[in-house]
Amino acid sequence: MAATHAQRSTREIFTTLEYGPVPESHACALAWLDTQDRHLGHYVNGKWLKPEHRNSVPCRDPITGENLASCPQAQAEDVAAAVEAARTAWENWSGLPGASRAQYLTRLAKMIQKHQRLLWTLESLVTGRAVREVRDRDIPLAQQLLQWHAVQAYTQEETLAGWEPMGVIGLILSPTFSFLEMMWRICPALAVGCTVVVLVPPGSPTPLLLAQLAGELGSFPGILNVINGPASLGPILASQPGVQKVTFCGAVEEGRVLRRTLAGQGAELGLALGAESLLVLTEAADVDSAVEGVVDAAWSDRSAGGLRLLIQESVWDETMRRLQERMARLRGGRGLDGAVDMGARGAAAHDLAQRYVREAQSQGAQVFQAGDVPSVSPFFPPTLVSDLPPASPCTQAEVPWPVVVASPFRTAKEALAVANGTPRGGSASVWSERLGQALELGYGLRVGTVWINAHGLRHPEVPTGGCKESGSSWHGGPDGLYEYLRPSGTPARLPSLSENLNYDTFGLAVPLTLPSGPEIGPSPAAPYGLFIGGRFQAPGARSSRCIQDSKGNLQAYVAEGGAKDIRGAVEAAHQAAPGWVSQPPGARASLLWALASALERRESAFTSALERHGVELKTAKVEVELSARRLRAWGARAQAQGHLLQVAELRGPVLRLREPLGVLAIVCPDEWPLLAFASLLAAALAHGNAVVLVPSGVCPIPALEVCQDMATLLPAGLVNVVTGDRDHLTRCLALHQDVQALWYFGSAQGSQFVEWASAGNLKPVWVNRGRPRAWDQEAQGAGPELGLRAARTKALWLPMGD
Amino acid sequence: MGGRIPTRGSRRGQRARGQRARGQRAGGGGQRARGAEGPGAEVAGPAPRGTGAGRARRSRGGGTQEGLGGGELGVEEPATAAVARAMSARNLGTELDLSWISKIQVNQPAVLRRAEQIQARRMVKKEWQAAWLLKAVTFIDLTTLSGDDTSSNVQRLCYKAKYPIREDLLKALNVHDKGLTTAAVCVYPARVCDAVKALKAAGSTIPVASVATGFPAGQTHLKTRLEEIRLAVEDGATEIDVVINRTLVLTGQWEGSDFIKTSTGKETVNATFPVAIVMLRAIRDFFWKTGNKIGFKPAGGIRSAKDSLAWLSLIKEELGDEWLTPELFRIGASTLLSDIERQIYHHVTGRYAAYHDLPMS
């Protein structure tokens, strides 16, 4: 066992030629803990905060169980104090020129460099991770992050004009995430001018040490505050006045709970969930290198999660043999041993892995374990699970560290189907020496990061994030910066919490439509249907609602859509989506332009429809004209999507792709019934999404008139428009698991419901919280914010070499 | 068939291995060696171009890495049975199946990453380091390949091969009774006589290896190369490092071998980790397919004790402990031994050695 080598003589080792321990001294980590009298507090406003009368949690060495220090758990007032400090600091920090912030970040990078030994020994000591990984990878990366973001801060006025920092950012870390995850998020936040309060689980001193290093630079106390406390303090942190955004990284279920709890709260929520990764190994792969990729992904203390491994059937046997051979050579042991591949992650991680493996076994899986790893908890050997029946619960569950679950596939197409058939969308690697196949898989995988013939590469310049249940928050690269920015002039987010909103009944009942009095004047035309699958259809409920004009007269009947109609619309959109995605941007643009022309041709019809709703003729004309312009503008922007990143230390490019969200549901605002509809639709279509829209409730006629044109111009099902009770339709869309994103412009209550309901499939949502937007203004009606929200980023790493 | 294959590191910009192999199948189908079942069997089919008569060891080669400054591998110049290296288990060969070669995929960036990792992940310290360094001594082909070699410096080299580490140091580590020597002494053919004589005088059975066959370029006629081997063997060399005819390799005419070597040591780029990884994986695959263990010898540029430890852990990681024997692993080096001795001195005494503390080789 790697950690339990008895004292051996040179003579014995000469015969056995075994490995020995390479202990890394952690004396300096202990000395640092001593400076705090082994009693860690919180680091707030550039000082240690050690309040009395708090429950203390011991910080233990996860391997020996030795009590290293005690950590008082924060209470609400400590959280409030930290947020207050961050808020005060923000006043100054956000107003500084970018160059000053750049200078500060550079100084912090140097500070880390000076104290790197302390950082790596402390981190390895308390997390149990292999010191080699912390020392050789995490610490240099932390410095690179600061340096890269310093450059971004320096050029902020120029490259991020039109954006301003959000304010105080709350960051909640779960116990399985390392201090590096914190660095990935605080660097962009600080760079753009936000200040941060980090809530770390008790017993994680490294973030406190980092805060101390930052605080000791002196100039700006309070921009980085770290408090110890359980994750249950998250909602308290989020509801502090001034906190504009909360970023959480942790387990999927925790994220779901947080999403529900924070519905209607002031802070926006960014989620980065789960840690499972995926590796697709094709028959055209360099199998030995791919096996090393598996080691990087699951057995080298790089990632916090397990790995799902898809192996092409024709190389299954060969791969399994190599994998098992390689596993036997892995070494586990105390993280502070410089020659181990894997450390340990504490008892909780051990038990989680143990449970998963036992369950997999009971469900009929083969389990292979190997490696030179101590057989006592918390050590867990590298584990390879295969032959797991496809429908068994373990196949669906997230794979924990350090488990690899292997399953076969026959063709690349099937690999995509299997890989995309999970709710997770974090990262994946593709191993194939065939360029075409590798790119096909790389583009086809619905995940945030794809590495071709590599696994686990990271760089500050490359955005990392996910989709589906992995959450839609980003760190690194330009996307990481936008996480903490909002368009200049956006008012601060305030809570719009409605305590008595009943989630179970909101929008549940469809109001009955009864005859609303005599029809005066010439009989209105036949009721408008629902625009689904490219044609107008009668609603499932077979009833219509009347639309009154500004004078209270009956203007028209529109269909009363319901749950079944939403289902049909989402299905139609899903069918149309692949065709639309495969259209080149140019083709998308020309269709949007054609739609704009159609709008202009029928300008008078739209103008009069708007006029009947009390819009002045001049304003109505402007609205129609602007709508056409928006369609054209987004058509033109569709041409320029994504770009190429050149990353140091990597030969070859990284592509930053902008991929459509999929089926996007949009509940349009009541104001600007045509312009808002056109603006949102144009942005969504230009980025390749298929759309289900609920038009303005009071004035749906212009939108339905546009449908007449779309019926002839656009592919069937690409755009679907459903009229009816907005709350009811919102409910159906928000709870629909196969709607990939939802934009809601309506009431504060509706916004709150949408945020709550999105926890189901963790779809990204954009809500206005009952606040009208100035759709006629360029910034709010057609600004880059729409483009940012209309697509998601994917980073595709393409290392090269022959 | 004991030819070991030094190759050189100057072969860049060649076509990919797989293409080369396929090209051969298309164009020169009659040139594969066939039908031989045991050592020394005659080539049944038409002999490979340029080889004339001779006995072919056929089989696959292995992977290679162009652009890494690396060598070629898995190719053997047919040689006569008379020069077989004294090996416990020899490559009995197998039917040449070029599909093995064409199927091999090597991803260069991934191999480079692995090479970087392997040097950082398996350190050994203290007693372990001392033991590993002593073990490394037993793998060394103590080499002198200079134009000005004479019998006196060859004699000194042989003495050093017999007594590689100062006796008192070995005693301190309690390994003085292990009969620690280097694996072999390696000299030019003209110096084989001197080496054999010196070793005999020292009462040693350390084998003498020689770099026959037009070393280091291998660009001489087959006839003279064979003659060179014969003469070296007559002089008492028991191991011959053969430089393959790389013209044949580049035109896709593969042959087999039972010991492969990264390079001659006479190039600007010699033994590198990425190249070695590819070669070791080929060795392992060949073993899995045929049961034959092929030996491996990195040569050139391995100067420090730390380097030698990395090479040992590389072998241990990629092939396993069973390859860590002089029959299957050699390090071609001239100055490495003195650095190892210096490290051992430091381990035993806790002091850094002065130049005059250790005997020269």
Automatic annotation (TrEMBL), chain A:
Residue intervals of the Aldehyde dehydrogenase domain: 48-486, 544-768
Gene3D superfamilies: Aldehyde Dehydrogenase, Chain A, domain 1, Aldehyde Dehydrogenase, Chain A, domain 2
Domain of life per record: Eukaryota
SUPFAM superfamilies xrefs: ALDH-like
Pfam families: Aldedh (PF00171)
InterPro entries xref list: Ald_DH/histidinol_DH (IPR016161), Ald_DH_C (IPR016163), Ald_DH_N (IPR016162), Aldehyde_DH (IPR011408), Aldehyde_DH_dom (IPR015590)
Homology family: Belongs to the aldehyde dehydrogenase family.
Subunit structure: Interacts with SPG21.
The protein, known as: Aldehyde dehydrogenase family 16 member A1
Gene this protein is translated from: ALDH16A1
TrEMBL record, chain B:
Composition skew (Gly residues), residue ranges: 61-73
Pfam families reported for this sequence: DeoC
Taxonomic superkingdom: Eukaryota
Stretches the record annotates as Disordered: 1-74
Pathway(s) served: Carbohydrate degradation; 2-deoxy-D-ribose 1-phosphate degradation; D-glyceraldehyde 3-phosphate and acetaldehyde from 2-deoxy-alpha-D-ribose 1-phosphate: step 2/2
Keywords recorded for this protein, A-Z: Lyase, Schiff base
Record's keyword annotation contains Manganese: no
Bias-annotated ranges (Low complexity): 39-50
Gene3D superfamilies: Aldolase class I
Catalytic activity: 2-deoxy-D-ribose 5-phosphate = D-glyceraldehyde 3-phosphate + acetaldehyde
EC number, as in UniProt: 4.1.2.4
Ranges annotated as biased composition (Basic residues): 9-23
PANTHER family documented for this protein: DEOXYRIBOSE-PHOSPHATE ALDOLASE
Protein family (similarity comment): Belongs to the DeoC/FbaB aldolase family. DeoC type 2 subfamily.
Protein name according to UniProt: deoxyribose-phosphate aldolase
Annotated source species: Felis catus (Cat)
Gene name in the database record: DERA
